[in-house]
Amino acid sequence: MTKSYAILKRARISMKKFREILKYFSLDIEATKIAQLTGLNRNTVNKYLHLIRARIAEESEIESPFSGDIEVDESFFGARRVKGKRGRGASGKTIVFGLLKRNGKVYTKIVPNCSRATLQSVIRGKVKFESTIHSDGWKGYDGLVDLGYKKHHRVQHGNNEFANSKSHINGIENFWGIAKMRLAKFRGLSKSTFYLHLKECEFRFNHRGENLYLLLLKITKK
After folding, report:
1. Exposure pattern of 166-200 as b/e (b: 16+ CB <10 Å)?
2. Strands 69-78 and 132-136: what pairing?
């Protein structure tokens, strides 16, 4: 065991076994199969998958602010909508706000609502003022230029407009589709577990095309 791996400080598994778990996780193999491949107890595997996802989430939160062309949008995850409740007023769902740098990375955050104060607080904390923001016509995005952002282009989904000559949010909408498809296979997640799995979706998207195993080795040493 190597002391530099804080994740193994009180572990009862060897570094070799931990690296096996990390390798299979990077290949997106489910916990039951990992337990079979490593010869470890399913609960032990789940414990380390949880710790790996927690490290991924920590790394996500310290990512540098975004700049350039940034798409912003919200999406709703979870239970089927309550009859009569639609769109941003839908109840029984987890609201996730997302920022995506075109041809780059995405950042997601669970938010309590879609109010102007909530959404713009996240934007101010994660997007540099010299950026150009692209959004839909939701009133929560009103006043971004007044806050100091260079430009703000909008696409009016309410008018059946999904792209125009200046703007679209196809990138962030594509990410929502990928994330929902991935999370559906878990057949229900608690709110605390949902956050870690959401951040895993973000991590896999942001590092697509990279060697995830080597990257995970690096961040789990911290």
Report:
1. ebbbebbbebbeebeebbeeeeebeeeebbbbbbb
2. parallel
Give the single-character DSSP code of 62: T
CB 68 within 8 A of CB 127: no
pLDDT tens-place values along the chain, 222 residues long: 444 566 666 557 899 999 999 999 999 999 999 999 999 999 999 999 999 999 999 999 998 899 999 999 999 998 655 454 545 555 678 999 999 999 999 999 999 999 999 999 999 999 999 999 999 999 999 999 999 999 999 997 555 545 555 678 999 999 999 999 999 887 777 777 899 999 999 999 999 999 999 999 999 987
Q: Which two tokens stand for residue 177?
A: 């589709």
Quote the pTM value.
0.87
Helix (H) or strand (E) holding 95: strand 93-101
109 vs 115: CA distance, rounded Å: 14
Report the alpha-carbon distance of residue 87 to residue 89 in Å, rounded: 5
Q: Which phi and psi angles does 211 have, rounded to 5°?
A: -80, 100
> Distance (Å, rounded) from C-alpha 118 to C-alpha 179?
22
CB 77 within 8 A of CB 96: yes
Q: What distance in Å separates the CA atoms of residue 14 and residue 8, rounded to the nearest whole number? A: 8
